[in-house]
Amino acid sequence: MVAGPATYLDANATTPVDPRVAEAMLAALTGLHGNPSSSHLAGRDARRAVEAARREVAALIGADRPDEIVFTSGGSESNITAIRAALAARPDRREVVTSAVEHPSVHATLDRLAATDGIVIHRLPVDGCGRLDLDAYRAALGPGTALVTLMTANNETGTLFPIADLVPAAHAAGALFHTDAVQAAGRVALSVAASGVDMASFSAHKLHGPKGVGALHVRTGTPFAGLIFGGRQEKGRRAGTENVPGIVGFGVAARLALTNSHAERIVRLRDRLEGDVLAALPGTRILGDRASRLANTACLAFPGSDAEMMLHRLDQAGIAASSGSACATGGLAPSHVLTAMGLRHLAGSTIRFSLSRFNSDADIDRLFAVLPAIAREARILEIMA
């Protein structure tokens, strides 16, 4: 087994699997041999495990009914399925309202559909804190709007959008409303029922569950056609034999997150991290909406320092952090989120530290044993370059 970093501060990319989740998954791998679609005892046992997990996920997100949960391979599949389903349900409408700071899976899908199907995309601007332009939102809605797709929480800055306040206007315009709630589940209290959203995306690995399994919430009565066809799994909404061990792990992770999100302790650690940075490195900027953001996310700009160089040095010191979305890492373009916020000039000097319930004060101590010197070194080398 390969050891991970001594200090893991990249929970918005993925979270460590909770040992209780791993234990439940191992039991499913070794004990649940049947196909959930089979009628014999082994199949029925697997089906019961899947349905139990469905109830746990429904409870975490505040769904009216467990059968509103469709298990998928993850957040990206859920986003893509929701977008395509909404457009198929509104064939006479060809416009989609979204924001400039959505996850790459949303942007890429919409861009492809604009090129192949001629849909019109309204990308709403955000301000310097990542807050949505509400006037632009209301102006973008109209008789041609098929779908509004807006994230609940931004993966880079942690900024929260007021989803429940946005849904009524979309419905009044006759549009469906989807939210990418992948970063929010298990970190903020959610009620998809109360918010009125038609569809919402989730992923297990953001809340200490396994990678490769997610869910799409589809509100009862929402017109819906799945993306993957074949068998009648998930009540005909997503073909393919269910990933039983992964779904079981998702269910346990959802139950644990609902029982205790550890939000108060995590926000204390985040505030300590930010306070220590500001004290040690004057000029550092905290990015995002400090009044409305995820408790675990500290998006920090170190003006004049090279973020990639800093991340390399932190990695050498056994500390994992990120410069932005893990799904966009590897590209040469600056963060589309920071660019939309008017902060393109800070994109190359920004690091995201994102915490989970497994972090402690000892992790912050280890970070600050090396971070000030690393930031100063990165600034000097950047000046010399």
Write the layout of secondary structure elements.
Blueprint: E1 7-8, H1 19-31, H2 41-61, E2 69-72, H3 75-89, E3 95-99, H4 104-117, E4 120-124, H5 134-140, E5 145-149, H6 163-172, E6 176-180, H7 192-195, E7 199-203, E8 214-218, H8 233-236, H9 244-259, H10 263-280, E9 285-287, E10 297-301, H11 307-316, E11 319-320, H12 336-340, E12 350-354, H13 361-368, H14 371-384
Parallel strand pairs: 1-11, 3-4, 3-5, 5-6, 6-7
Antiparallel strand pairs: 2-8, 7-8, 9-10, 10-12
β-strand number: 12
Rg: 21 Å
What's the main sheet like?
Answer: 7 strands, mixed
The first-level CATH class of the largest domain is given as Alpha Beta
Helicity level, as a percent range? 40-55%
Number of helices: 14
Brief summary of the model shown:
The chain is of the alpha/beta class. The protein has helices at 19-31, 41-61, 75-89, 104-117, 134-140, 163-172, 192-195, 233-236, 244-259, 263-280, 307-316, 336-340, 361-368, 371-384; strands spanning 7-8, 69-72, 95-99, 120-124, 145-149, 176-180, 199-203, 214-218, 285-287, 297-301, 319-320, 350-354. The strands form 3 sheets. The protein has a 7-stranded mixed β-sheet, sandwiched between helices. The chain has a 3-stranded antiparallel β-sheet with strand order 9-10-12, with helices on one face.
Structure description:
By secondary structure, the chain is of the alpha/beta class. The protein has 2 domains: 7-15 and 261-384, Aspartate Aminotransferase, domain 1 (Alpha-Beta Complex); 19-259, Aspartate Aminotransferase, domain 2 (3-Layer(aba) Sandwich), CATH 3.40.640. The protein is 41% helix and 13% strand. It has 14 helices and 12 strands. It has helices at 19-31, 41-61, 75-89, 104-117, 134-140, 163-172, 192-195, 233-236, 244-259, 263-280, 307-316, 336-340, 361-368, 371-384, and strands at 7-8, 69-72, 95-99, 120-124, 145-149, 176-180, 199-203, 214-218, 285-287, 297-301, 319-320, 350-354. The strands form 3 sheets. Strands 2-8-7-6-5-3-4 form a 7-stranded mixed β-sheet, sandwiched between helices. A 3-stranded antiparallel β-sheet has the order 9-10-12, with helices on one face. A two-stranded parallel sheet has the order 1-11. Helix 1 (19-31) runs antiparallel to helix 9 and helix 3 packs parallel to helix 4. The longest helix has 21 residues, at 41-61. The model has no long low-confidence stretch (mean pLDDT 94).
